[in-house]
Amino acid sequence: MTDAAALHDRARTRGLNPVVYWVVRAVLQPFFRVYLRLGRLGREHIPRSGPLLLAANHRSFLDPFVIATMARRPVYYVAKKELFANRLVAWVLNALGAFPVDRGASDSEMLETARTILERGDALVMFPEGTRIRPGALGAPKRGVGRLALETGAPIVPVAVMGTEDVRRGWRIRPRKVTVRAGRPLTYPRVDRPSPNLAQAVTDRIWPCVALQWEWLGGAAPIRTAAIVGHAPALAAGLREAGIDPAGRVGDADVVVFAGPGGVPRFARRSRTVATIANDGTVSSEDRAFAKTLERALRAATRHDAQPDAAAEAAAARPVAA
Fold first, then answer.
1. CB of 154 within 8 A of CB of 185?
2. Could you tell me which CATH number the domain at 3-216 has?
């Protein structure tokens, strides 16, 4: 049995180590409350028993431990497989309820472990973004959380974490304000073999509830409107295809895109964040979610660029789908 298989087997059969879990939590919880001034909102929305999925945004390695203090029960969580390279660290993380996931791949072992945990009535934290997203708005979710919700029928509690990304600098743990907020549970009917489209549709309903908690805490909202400086009908059509209304005014839009000669976008500005756009359409920005949204719109714009100008203008004039 490989190391990863042994970790999954322990999570499925024996579960976390209650002594290790509650001792570590007894140490970390007062530390979070005092040093990080941890604020916990919406704890009443988290059931004390029964299967439970906690769907949260991901900013820092501290997120699973901070979120765990919201629940009055042990919670399991998914962690990237690289964290389990050291045997001692792997044992400690596994004893605390963590099990590995192979990011960037369809990890059937991770999904099977998650299903087993939920079906026996335990709580599981998942980060639908799949990786840490910082700074800026939330990233795009992957459909795994929707698939698990349908396959197990477990209620999903949307959770947002704010401030953990500012805590660590190198090996230093700095005293920064951290807040966690949970919303009301969501439930969906159980489906034995949900299609990828159905799983994505459920994920697309869960994620706005996470975003609602995030924005309530003061987090950056997603890009909804854009203003284009210059003549770029293909870019406008691409933005609409990405779900962004390009008809905004410069002073009011979420993002301003500056197009050069021939309608080629050169850079974009969102609040104080600037993104530069290379000739190949690659976007560089410290806000990863902002960059990915722009790249998606630029790929769509490239397709529209092959159309005659009149067709691109017509595509840009279509209303944004609800």
1. no
2. 3.40.1130.10
